[in-house]
Structure formats: structure tokens, C-alpha cells
Amino acid sequence: MKVLIGMAVGVTALALSAPAFGQSVSVGTLTCGDAAQQVQMSLSYYDIGSQANTNTGSQSSGAGAGKVVFEPLEIHTDPGEFPLLLQMVEMGYGFKSCTLVTSGSKRGGASFEFDLVTVKSVNAIGGVPPREDAAPSEYTDVVFEYGAMKSLN
Length: 153
What we know:
Layout: E1 2-3, H1 9-16, E2 28-33, E3 38-52, E4 68-77, H2 82-91, E5 93-102, E6 111-127, E7 137-145, E8 148-151
Parallel strand pairs: 1-5
Antiparallel strand pairs: 2-3, 2-5, 3-4, 4-7, 5-6, 6-7, 6-8
């Protein structure tokens, strides 16, 4: 995996700010990169998770027993992020780390750190609104794979 260290001018411009898109409410931000370069994206959706391989009813405690499997991180972000993320997929670039900070819930926001992050897929999505008075739906859908995840709370 190639780690993103100094990707051209597009990343620098993107790192300055990530505007909110459409009329959607941000549910968090995802910041990726290293100490020298950061890319920050405002999110309208995120999905993370993990699952443990259990051997209920089995006598086995061998390899794989109790092993945690990380599910991919999926986000929806501004449609303007698509060209840079597409370029990253095409070139095989990744990030040293990413930090997801959620906007909150009744208990406040949560933060997660992901290490050795690659962009698995990126899709530009657009749709006609369900009602005439609603805005069209446009966003970039991104799926990341990563080597490790930890909660920062």
C-alpha cells in the first residue's frame, strides 16, 4: 500500500475546508492523513462496525477463535470530494490514519481512529428528490478498509 504523504495541490486545497453539502446536516467529520498533510471531509452518513468470530457450542479455541473482524468504514460526503478520492483509488494511495469525530447523540459525540486506511471504492451518487419542493440528493459514497480501529473516548 502506498501511503499518502505529499499528493499534489488538490489535497492541499481540500485540506483547508470541507463545506457542508446540499441542505444536509453534518453527522461528523473524517480527517485523514499524517502530520504533514490532512484531508477533512464533512459527513452526512457513516457506518462502522466490527464482529467477533465466536465458536458457541464448539470445543475449539484454536486459530480464529474470538478474533475480531473489522467491517469497512462507509461514508457519504460532498460530491466535490469525488475527483480526489477517485484519483486515490486509481493510484492505489492510502492514508496513514483517519479520525472520525461524530457530531453527537444524547451522550455527546464519539471519536474513532483508524490506521493504515485505503479507499476501497468511491461512487458519485445523485437522485431526483421524492417531492417537488425538496432538493436533489447528491453525495460521494466512499468505502474504506483499514488495519486497526480504536475508540478515542
